[in-house]
Amino acid sequence: MTLIKNIGELVGILRAGVLRKQGAEMAETGVLRNAWLAIEDGKIKAFGKMEDVIPGSDRESIDAQGGMVMPAFCDSHTHIVYAGSRDGEFLDKINGLSYEEIAARGGGILNSSDLLHETSEDELYEQSIARVREMMGKGTGAMEIKSGYGLNPADELKMLRVIRRIKESVPALVRVTFLGAHAVGRGYTHEEYVQAMVDMMPQAAEYADFVDVFCDEGFFTVEDTDRLLAAGAACGLRPKIHANELAVSGGVQVGVRHGALSVDHLERTTDVEIDVLRGSETMPTMLPGSSFFLGIPFGRAKEFIGAGLGVALASDYNPGSSPSGDMRFVMALGCIRMRLTPVQALNACTLNSAYAMGLSDITGSITPGKRADLLLTRPGWTLTKLPYLYQTPFLRTVFLNGQPLE
Ligand code: NIG
Ligand code: FE
After folding, report:
1. Which ligand has its closest atom nearest to the C-alpha of 216?
2. Which of 78, 182, 296 to mutate to test the pocket of ligand 1 (most atoms within 8 A of CB)?
3. Minimum CA distance residue for ligand 1 atom 3
4. Which atom of ligand 1 is found nearest the CA of 103?
5. How many CB atoms are located within 10 Å of the residue 113 CB?
6. 145 CA distance to ligand 2 centroid (A)?
7. pLDDT digit string (tens) for the chain, length 406 residues
8. Domains of the chain (ranges plus CATH)?
């Protein structure tokens, strides 16, 4: 057993069985001051107040010295398997080109697809696992990783193999999403490409947990999405959709209709999308890192919450629209730019993001029996300081599955 003692603030406490938070619940989290927490067999065993009796001996005890303990971040939307970099496009962007203009010139996703094609599988793994290590070091304990830079069956499978290899080699929890329909691959007509992705669905399903489609203006239509999600469902893949980033796309509606676990981006939504999401099992997921980087609107998180919905936040870590996987910065953007309270942002970056990967029964909160995926901060930190002092180093130890990260 490992015991963490003298915790100044233990935040993110939740009773067992709550899989997500919605509406007013987003503003709630269990907090215990001056606390201890016990870890056994990789799981949270128990917690309590220092003045109460602490079970077990002091073997392997860690003195938190008044630091905060919180759940590790969950990042339900990333594209971290990619080759090389798109720093040339960064200069185009500075010079005034939009994301759509860069894509229309053959840059964007197609540029990453060309680079990925030329890169060996081992090299792709090495480049990608470095990002995963960086994310874990910054406190992410569970992450979703998408394919979508292959853009032909062979290269999509190469990406999926790399994601599986990552999943098998890191202490973080990894969920795999097949995003063949990210852009039309070179050499295909639009129709041929959609058909090719439908045809490879059974093969993709050997690796993937979820199916995703970039359902947005200039990429894939609602009809394409319908077909791809139906093909995914036939192989047991639940949808997670890219919707309403570039336009009001209909992606929310088609996603909810297919029982999507999440619909993501949502920078451009009307009250119609809010109504469609109400009463569904779908987690609206917003990606403030891409709003920040692209200079597009931030999602209307407060209005979603006001309408009784839950909101998850994720990094969207990718080379084109969000070149950062720092969930503490995502949390800060949630507070600073979307005006979420620190507690709402915490729930969005932990429990709700875990829900958006189907993992909230095993991680994402301080609940006995869940995996001990925890962050121990340096002394003096509180939940509010985390997004406020948004660049000051705060982490002391990241525990994943009960083990401190080396
Ligand atoms: O979520 N919007 C589509 N896909 C990514 C961007 C991918 C890229 O530009 O490489 C996103 O923003
Ligand atoms: Fe994305």
Report:
1. 1
2. 182
3. 214
4. 9
5. 23
6. 10
7. 899 999 999 999 999 999 999 999 999 999 999 999 999 999 999 999 999 877 765 667 999 999 999 999 999 999 999 999 999 999 999 999 998 899 888 889 999 999 999 999 999 999 999 999 999 999 999 999 999 999 999 999 999 999 999 999 999 999 999 999 999 999 999 999 999 999 999 999 999 999 999 999 999 999 999 999 999 999 999 999 999 999 998 999 999 999 999 999 999 999 999 999 999 999 999 999 999 999 999 999 999 999 999 999 999 999 999 999 999 999 999 999 999 999 999 999 999 999 999 999 999 999 999 999 999 999 999 999 999 999 999 999 999 999 999 8
8. 2-71+365-404 (2.30.40.10), 74-355 (3.20.20.140)
Our CA angle for 159, 161, 164, nearest 5°, is: 110
Burial class (CB in 10 A: 0-12, 13-18, 19+), 188: middle
- Using a 6 Å CB cutoff, which residues line ligand 1? 79, 108-109, 112, 214, 242, 245, 290, 316, 318-321
CA of 364 to the centre of ligand 2 (A): 21
Q: Exposed, middle or buried: residue 169 (CB in 10 Å: 0-12, 13-18, 19+)?
A: exposed
Bin 289: left if φ > 0, else alpha if -120 < ψ < 50, else beta: alpha
Residue bearing the CA closest to ligand 1, atom 8:
320
- Shortest-distance ligand to the CA of residue 81: 1
Tell which atom from ligand 1 comes closest to the C-alpha of 245.
Answer: 2
For residue 316, the ligand 1 atom closest to its alpha carbon is 1
Q: Identify the residue whose C-alpha is closest to ligand 1 atom 9.
A: 320
Residue with the smallest CA separation from ligand 1 atom 7 is 320
- C-alpha 178/C-alpha 210 separation (Å) is 6
Query: How many of the other CB atoms lie within 10 Å of CB of 105?
Result: 13
